[in-house]
Each structure stands twice: as structure tokens, then as C-alpha cells.
């Protein structure tokens, strides 16, 4: 409760830092800059998936699908309107593209969420996995977004500032949602659905809200990714990408925002450190998943501290 | 006696070939304390599940505050005033004591997702008000000092009490208690009896109790319904029930 | 009409393979209640076993020949049954009583591990390899239809295996124990059933079926590579859910249905590009109307 009033202040501090960082960007090494932006995008993805998988206790294996929807929507939007807008208004166009991407992804989240919420556990996992695959197949056949050969020449608008400002907003949004009286309902649904509904909480509505909100931010992350890499291809959003995000959430400790942020950063940096073992990189990665599940399924960063009335952010 | 808050007319539910509750009729006045007893498997909890909308009756009708409840989802029934506890305590284990109760207050609030994101002035004062109400409720039941404990780490008796408090936070007109005395020692049972009567009087609500412990049921209930194999075999005051040969046969068996 | 019959035959052949794989998913789900993601990789390992065993066998027996093929299939099946049991022993057994989510992620990890290891250049390599001709193949031309002997063989072998499996599950002591474990693991253990042995056996049996399916699939496919199991594996999983996961006849039925639907949809010009998505679209539709699958039983949650 105490942190609730201060939450907005933290958000402003985060955004201010991002803007300052953005100012010094030209001095950064391009390689490190790219990785820093990757970190920010993965933070958005992991924190938003955490709302679905961690707090609400649903199991989605389709987060990359939402990311793809948002990424393609935003990229296409920018490509269409880029030439019509003067340079001074480009940032506005970028914001519009990201927002649109987020909204369309949220719509997709609604589309997946509503029907599949009658399902539980493994079934839900497989339906969300299926959704991700369907998105991929649809994109592969859409000539207007480059089909299988991919969407090229997307303007490079994503900066460190934008990425970290949006990451701060995502963290703020998920944390302040979950820390409100309304938002404690997400955890209640995850703990015991039957009891939650007997307390007047509509589990279906909460689950759909989690899906839609999570998908919205995944869509934004997709938009940032598109304007960062300047190229999108359907294979970039496959099952493996969804697994990556799930592993971040699990590594960070389901439902722990701070842990998930750290995990997102570690898992973005890890492949860079493993670059010299390129051939063994993915083998090590898969062993890491198995090892993690065997040794610390509750995540690396969950010390056994008690969750207080106002959870730590 | 004032108007009935709950009315069951010939309510029946079948699972496949099994009739779990058969043509059950009962009614509860708006400030009554009623008991529902019967041997194991008699259909008491199933009756609760019918009343709270977890199951829909195959036949018959259930009316709450004069309105039929058919097709209403459990969470909507809670909104019109039915709250319950569970036989096998179902708290939100990973939430704190405070949050368990706080979650149960949100059904009467208009604040939703956007307010929670924006955190405007109205939202903050509403959150403060909730906090005040929750703490007040916790203090009444002596749980205030445990507010930050994780619900699943509480001792058994406190968990039972917390579940009742959580149900009360939804501001019910009818409170259904499913075996609240299970696992309690005689002193705790004594306290529970006081607690239930206290709740009825303080919050001015109707209470329906499923309980195995005869001392508790006979000690506090105004009227009692007896179920056996899903069929109502008796109803009446504690004295009537204690001397009813059918009830004695159901509990002790006949020659 | 000809088009219809032709698609029917192709669909049955494809569906039979899905059915064989789906049985493995459903059996494991029956005893352990989780999706064995690595199942699709056992399928791939089946095909690769045959690929590496074939040259050795060819020194003793002529290939393509029925006898040679049988020996190769038998050896590959045994190898994969062993691998399946090993996966269970190393990865899943230590997690027996953990939350399902943990096991599911582990299964995904195991699957990724097998795939990436096999793609490594010192193992199989990521390139596509031509699968040897194990059987003499001919095309029969009947009533204007083209029926390949391989397709007939696939349907025939599947029918035999299904019957055998039904016999094992319904008529043998091992099968009875399997059903007992799937019904209630604790009670079965109390009745003296060796749970570990039964689960191991189930993995062995499922993996053996997957190996055979993998070889049959490889016979129809242009070549084999370490990710070849992913797509048929996903489809077969969909088939298992479609039929009602945990239900053996359901898996067989789901496999056949999915094979047919996919083949027919693939034969319609506008839909053929979306073939990969069709399986999932069907899955989502089915689960909306029958969340427990076609032959599965809906359970009532006890409150």
C-alpha cells in the first residue's frame, strides 16, 4: 500500500533515466547498444508474460505470437505512412505504430483468451502454442507483409530511450495492477479459482484481462523489436521464442517482478557470453532449462522472504 | 419472522445415475441460524454447492431474496449476498491475511484496471477506505496482528477464522459455513459457537451451517434440517430433531 | 470422385502415422498426466536409427526387402524403446511429484536438448539426409487411382500395431497394471503394482511405436533431419487431444481424423498453404465445444 503512492514517482524516475541514457547513446558502442535494447525488449516481454503465467497462474506458450502480431502491425503501419510524414513528426508516428501494434495484439489476446479460458493447464498451454503456430502460418502466407521472405527496410526508430521508457511503463503497469485491491484478484484466481469465484471474483474476466494486458505489452515489444532489427521474418517468432520468454519468467520466479527483470537481462546476455561456444550454445541452453527445473523450479531469485501486503516491485 | 432470504423448492441434482440431492425443500429467514446435518455422503456440501451456484439443479428451484438463481454464476451470487466457507479450507495461500480479506471487498467497488493503472486521487482514497474496512474486520476477529502473515502459514484455527472473515468481507446476507468446527478441540468449538452467534447478531445476517458436531449444531441452531442419501428426512427445532426416530436411525442404524 | 478417393487413401496413410505417434503421447499422459514433448524427438531418433542400422544390415541381408526392413525396424524400435525409458529415468523420474508445469518445461528442455545435440555437426548434422529404400516400392493403378505400396503398408502396419496394443493393454497383466496406474497411482501402488516399472514400460512401449512411426514417416518424406519430428509430433499431439487425451482409441481416431482433414484441406487450392495451421485451428475448435476431446470424459470438479 505504501509503495502505491510512490509508484508513479518511480515510473517518472525510470523514464527520466531512459531519456538521459538516450542522450548519451551516440557515444555508445553499437554492439553494446544493440544488446541493451534487446535487454529492454525482453524485459517488456517477460514482465508482461509474468502477469499471465506468474500472477494469474495461466500457462501461455504463445507470447511470441502476440509479439509477432504487434511487430508486424507496427512495422507495416510505419512503412505505409513513413513517406507521408515530415521528419519532425516521426516520433509521433512511431508512438502511433507501437500503440496500434499493442492494441491489435491485445485484440488477438482477447481472441485467444476468451475461448481458451475454459481450458486448464496443459490444454491451455497447447492451445496458446497452437495460436502461435497459426499466426506464423498466416504471416508466412501474407504477401503484404513479405510472406516467408520477411518484411524489410523497417525504419530504425527504436532507441535505448524509447525501449527503457517503455520497459519502465510495463513494469509500473504490471506492478501497480497487481498491488491494487482489484489486482490481488489475479493472484486469488491463481491460488484457488473456486474460492475466488465464491468471493465475487469473476475468474474468466480476470484471466481474459491478464491475457489482453499481457498481449498488449508483448505487441509493443514486437513493435520495438521491428524498428530495432529493421527486419521481420515469421521464423523469428516461433515456438522457441515463446519458450525463451517462459524460461525468463520461471528463472525469475513466477510472479516476482524484480526477479523476472533480472532473469530477462541474464538470459539476453548469456548467449552473448556463449558466443565463442556458438556450436554448443543451444545445447547448453537446453541443459540449463532442465537443470533449472531439477534444482530450482521456483526460480533463481526467490529467497524465502514473505510477500507483504505491499509486494516488493 | 421476516421474509425468507433463501428458499429451495424441490431442488434436485443428479450426477449420472446418482441423485445426490433429491427434491430438497427448505427456507431460511433473513436473520435465522439454520443447521444442515446428516451422515457422511448425505449431500450436505452438494446442497451448498447448489445454493452457491457451483452446480445447477437438475430439477426444482432455488430462490434468493425472492429471485430465482438458476443460471447465475457463483461470483454473481456472491454479489447479491451469498458467501461461504469450504469444508477443506480454501484460502488464497500465497496472499497475506490482509490481502485475503482485501480481495473479497473488491466486488462492491467500481475501481477497475484503468483506475489501478492511473492511481488517481479517487482511487487512492478508495484504497485507503478498503484498508480501513479490512483492518477493522480483522480486528473484530482478532486477526489484526497477523495481517502480514502468509495465509497458508497460519495455524489451522486461524485459517478457519480467516475464511469466515473473508466471507464476511463480501457483505453477505446469507453466510454458509461448511463444517467450521472440523478439527477443532472442545475449547475451540466453544469459542466458535460464540463466534457464530456473534456474527449473526453483529452483522444481522442469516447463517446456514453444515456440521457434524452435534453439540455445536444443537447448541446454536434455531432450526435444523436432516439429510440422508440426498433426501430430507426431518426438520424442526433441536429438541424435535433429537427425539426424531428417523434421525436416530440414520445416525445409529436400525436393527 | 477419383479425387475424393485419392485424398482418402493419402489421408488414411498420413493419419495412421499420426495415430501411432498420438498413442505414445496419450499413454504417457495416462500414467503421468503430462505432455511428453520429447516424444516427437524419439520419432526422429527412430528414423535415424534405421538410417544408421541399414548399411550394417545390408551386408547380411539384401535391401530393399521385407525381411531386411523388418530386422531394421525391430532393431530401431528396441533402440528407441531404450532411449524412451532412459529419458524417463533421467529427466522425469526425479520430478515425479513436482508441479505439472515443472515437468512440462523439463520435457520441453529435453526435447530441445535432443534436437540441438542431434543438429550438432559431430552427431547427425543439421542437413537433410536421403532415407534408404528399405522396401521394394511399387505403385498400384486401380480405377484411375494411384496407390503406393508404402501407403498400404503404413495402414496395414498401423492396424496390426493397434490390435497388438489393444491386446497388451486389455489382456495382459502389464496392461492391467498400466490401466490401474492411470486410474489412481497411489491406490495401484498400495495394491502392489510397481509404479516405476509400469511407467518405464509405458515409455518403452510409446517410444517403440514412435520409432516405427518415424521410419514409416521417413519412407514417405523426401529425407530425414533432426527437426523432422517436430511437425508430425505437434500434429499427433493435437490428435491425442482431439480424441481425448489419455484415451487410447481416442488417439487412434484423432490421428486418422486429423490425417484425413489435413489431406483434404491440403487438396483444396486456397487452403493448401495453410496446411500447417489447420491442425491447430481444428484443435481449438474441438476444445471449444468438447473440452475433454471426442472420446474423453468430462470431469466434475469436486468442491
Helix coverage percent of chain B: 25-40%
What about the largest sheet of chain C? 2 strands, antiparallel
The CATH topology annotation of chain C reads as: ABC transporter involved in vitamin B12 uptake, BtuC
Q: Biggest interface in this structure? A: A-B, 36 and 47 residues
Q: How much β-strand is present in the residues of chain C?
A: under 5%
Based on Cα principal axes, name the global outline of chain C: globular
Distance between the termini of chain C: 54 Å
Q: Outline the low-pLDDT stretches of chain B.
A: none
CATH architecture name of chain C: Orthogonal Bundle
Rg from Cα of chain B = 19 Å
How large is the share of residues in beta strands of chain B?
15-25%
* Largest sheet entry of chain B: 6 strands, mixed
Number of strands of chain C: 2
Mean pLDDT of chain B: 90
Task: Tell me about this structure.
The complex is a heterotrimer of chains A (313), B (255) and C (303). Chain A has helices at residues 2-24, 30-55, 63-81, 90-116, 121-140, 160-178, 184-191, 193-198, 203-229, 239-252, 257-273, 281-295. Chain A is mostly helical and 313 residues long. Chain A has one domain (2-238). Chain B is an alpha/beta fold and 255 residues long. Chain B has helices spanning 44-51, 74-80, 97-103, 113-118, 121-140, 156-168, 186-203, 214-220, 238-243, 245-252; strands at residues 4-15, 18-29, 33-37, 59-64, 67-68, 82-84, 174-178, 206-210, 223-228, 231-236. In chain B, a hairpin with a 2-residue loop joins strand 9 (223-228) and strand 10. Chain B is globular, with a radius of gyration of 19 Å. In chain C, 70% of the residues lie in helices and 3% in strands. Chain C is built from eleven helices and two strands. In chain C, a hairpin with a 2-residue loop joins strand 1 and strand 2 (145-148). In chain C, helix 1 (2-32) packs across helix 6, helix 2 packs across helix 8 and helix 9 (230-243) packs parallel to helix 11 (275-289). Chains in contact: A-B, A-C, B-C. Chain A binds chain B through residues 1, 4-5, 7-8, 173, 176-177, 180-185, 187-188, 190-192, 194-203, 209, 213, 255, 306-309, and chain B through 52, 54, 73-76, 78-79, 83-84, 86, 90-96, 98-99, 102-107, 109, 111-113, 115-117, 119, 123-124, 127, 130-131, 147-150, 166-167, 169-170.
Question: What are the salient characteristics of this protein?
Answer:
heterotrimer, A: 313 residues, mainly alpha, 71% helix, B: 255 residues, alpha/beta, six-stranded mixed beta sheet, four-stranded antiparallel beta sheet, 10 helices, 39% helix, 24% strand, globular
